[in-house]
Amino acid sequence: MTTTSSTALKFAYWVPNVSGGLVISNIEQRTDWSYDYNVRLAQTAEKNGFDYALTQIRFTAGYGAENQHESVSFSHALLAKTTHLKVIAAVLPGPWKPALAAKQLATISHLTQGRIAINVVSGWFKGEFDAIGEEWPEHDQRYARSEEFIRSIKGIWATDQFSFQGKYYQFSDYTLKPKPAEPSTIEVFQGGSSKAARDMASRVSDWYFTNGNTVDEIKKQIDDIRHKAKLNGHQVKIGVNAFIIARDTEVEAQAVLKDIIHYANTEAVDAFADASKEAGASTKEKEGNWANSTFEDFVQYNDGFKTNLIGTPQQIAQRIIALKKVGVDLILSGFLHFIEEVEYFGQHVLPLIRELEKNEQ
Ligand SMILES: Cc1cc2nc3c(=O)[nH]c(=O)nc-3n(C[C@H](O)[C@H](O)[C@H](O)COP(=O)(O)O)c2cc1C
Fold it and tell me: 116-121 and 86-91: which strand pairing?
């Protein structure tokens, strides 16, 4: 399936490169973190109209996720087995330095016809940073570092003899060769919803990824970012997370949600909720991912139930169009049984969305 126009909504899915699926629940999940499963998933996704796949970076277990494959190498391996899917590799400033990331991604872009992108994440999991001996700047300083990281990699990719004098990174007449492959500029995504995240998006990122939320709450974030971006002469696109449960009837879909929560791994959810206090909740504004999340919200670790894409294909398609109308450009999706549900989404939900989009024009 091809998208209908350049304004058509884009679709991404979370790569399950960590174990345990996308919900912190002991419910049966026919999702697997192995490479073989992920190759089949990526091939299914590109056949079913998905534009992007997003890998996760985790150095230690958190929210369950006992095993975690590394994001950049895993992204490259998926690109090698697909033909047009773009894969967004999560990268964490701190463990990654901008010179290494810029070089690594430029090479991967040559090896994969420019299909690699990057998600710069700023870190919420202090226990993980402590475990690997990485410094843990406070919340807004982590974003200050991420912003320098993004300015550095973009500068390295765009210019010869790149120089930069930041607090965290310095470059002096650095020329990267080869630059990323044509026709690509490597797209830079970022994840997080705090004021610091929104400010960074309004200055440097190509894409802003946020946790799941209601249409009204998403609209508030978008209005804030786009207003500031305009003042900065910058353009940024918006991606929203959603855990999608599409079933033939609403009753079936709601029953799945109920079961996921009923079988929640309470201990892991509570530990995750506790660790998440280092995110937006730790700032003076007390805004950001998980700042207002309930136990049920935490069961999908990026607040994916809040977006409410749970119901019949028709209901989901209409709710996705409502998100588009407030300025959303991309839906980032998670599923319980990934391969089979990505296929169902491509066959039953996406065609309805494309129809509704045609009526919009
Ligand atoms: C779509 C998305 C993907 C993310 N992926 C990762 C990841 O792979 N690894 C990670 O440590 N944090 C990840 N994060 C977390 C963010 O980088 C950030 O630490 C968190 O959302 C808190 O940000 P805030 O305080 O600005 O709201 C992701 C966030 C979002 C929205």
Answer: parallel
